[in-house]
UniProtKB/TrEMBL annotation:
Signal peptide: none annotated. InterPro entries: NAD(P)-bd_dom_sf, SDR_fam. PANTHER family: PHOSPHATIDYLINOSITOL-GLYCAN BIOSYNTHESIS CLASS F PROTEIN, PHOSPHATIDYLINOSITOL-GLYCAN BIOSYNTHESIS CLASS F PROTEIN-RELATED. Keywords: Oxidoreductase. GO terms for molecular function: oxidoreductase activity. This is NAD(P)-binding protein. It holds the Pfam family adh_short. It comes from the Eukaryota. The keyword Cell membrane does not apply.
């Protein structure tokens, strides 16, 4: 179904022309992150593949070069980004600022190890993004700008109760120990944080009317990043593909949010929204907790207080 419901979206025809535009995709050396890099570069963008492991990033760059980036023939470069420590995320943003004078698209895709979910999925991406807001706003002040921030959440954020809280930093790393499917709930916890952050970020960005920026949270849908490791991978891929999408198609929602023509043509409608993937680009209602502005503000306040404690201001 992931494939079937996504076929109406065609990256070759439904994306804006990205020639002269600059994008960053974090976690871009595999899965839907790599597929997002590919789609944006083929639309003409200069894309920074932000990842920690240089050898894997180099391998991804070589793969993209071998496949070709036509028709847009954009460019893909590696940016070292380590999300295990927010201070390193800030350094990566500062490094980017020495290389570029504009940023049109920021699309974080983070995968983190067990035990560091909230750092990988939320706190470090928060720092990385906030460090880049000034250059995003500078770009947004240009005539005919179309600047976007895309955070990858998940529909599983809806599994959490509305009573979730973020009053102190320990609330960020709730383990749900003893609860059924505790690992999934922990993952959902960080994905809720991303939707709340996206909406709070949009409210703050809207305060500067001279620099219009669209922030969107998305659910990518089910994505097959594993069947190639099974016995009889070609057959397994065909069978799995009946239910969920290959990364190339699984990235459609991310790419729609980052560069879709529909978003460009109706920016006000898409500001701060949550998108689901069936069909691609569907504006959906997130959970009640995700719609709680007060909860979002508490999350923001606790985040900035924690960052101040470890020496990161703003």
């Amino acid at each position: 179904m992931g494939n079937l419901f996504s076929r109406k979206f065609d990256p070759l025809n439904d994306l804006v022309n990205l020639k002269g535009k600059v994008a960053i995709v974090t976690g871009g050396n595999t899965g839907i992150g790599l597929a997002t890099v590919r789609h944006l570069a083929r639309a003409g963008a200069k894309v920074y593949l932000a990842a920690r492991n240089e050898s894997r990033a180099t391998g991804a760059l070589a793969q993209l070069e071998h496949e070709g980036l036509a028709p847009g023939n954009g460019e893909v470069l590696w940016l070292k980004l380590d999300l295990t420590d927010p201070r390193d995320a800030k350094k990566a943003a500062e490094e980017f600022l020495t290389r570029e004078t504009r940023l049109d698209i920021l699309a974080p895709h983070a995968i983190g190890p067990d035990g560091m979910f909230f750092l990988f999925f939320y706190v470090s991406p928060f720092v990385f993004t906030q460090s880049l807001v000034p250059i995003l706003q500078k770009t947004a002040r240009e005539p005919d700008s179309d600047v976007r921030i895309v955070n990858v959440s998940s529909v599983v954020h809806k599994f959490l109760p509305a009573s979730v809280k973020f009053d102190e930093i320990s609330d960020f790393n709730t383990t749900y120990k003893g609860r059924p499917l505790s690992g999934l709930l922990r993952y959902a916890h960080t994905k809720l944080m991303l939707v709340l952050w996206t909406k709070s970020l949009q409210r703050r960005l809207n305060e500067d009317k001279s620099a219009p920026i669209t922030a969107i949270a998305i659910h990518p849908g089910g994505v097959d990043t594993f069947s190639h490791t099974w016995p009889f991978p070609r057959l397994m891929g065909l069978l799995v593909g009946l239910a969920i999408a290959k990364p190339e198609v699984g990235a459609y929602n991310s790419v729609f949010a980052a560069a879709g023509k529909k978003v460009r043509d109706d920016k006000a409608t898409y500001q701060g929204v949550y998108l689901e993937s069936q069909p691609t680009g569907k504006i959906a209602k997130p959970s009640q907790a995700a719609l709680n502005e007060e909860l979002g503000e508490r999350l923001w306040k606790t985040t900035t207080e924690f960052l101040a404690e470890i020496g990161i201001q703003g």
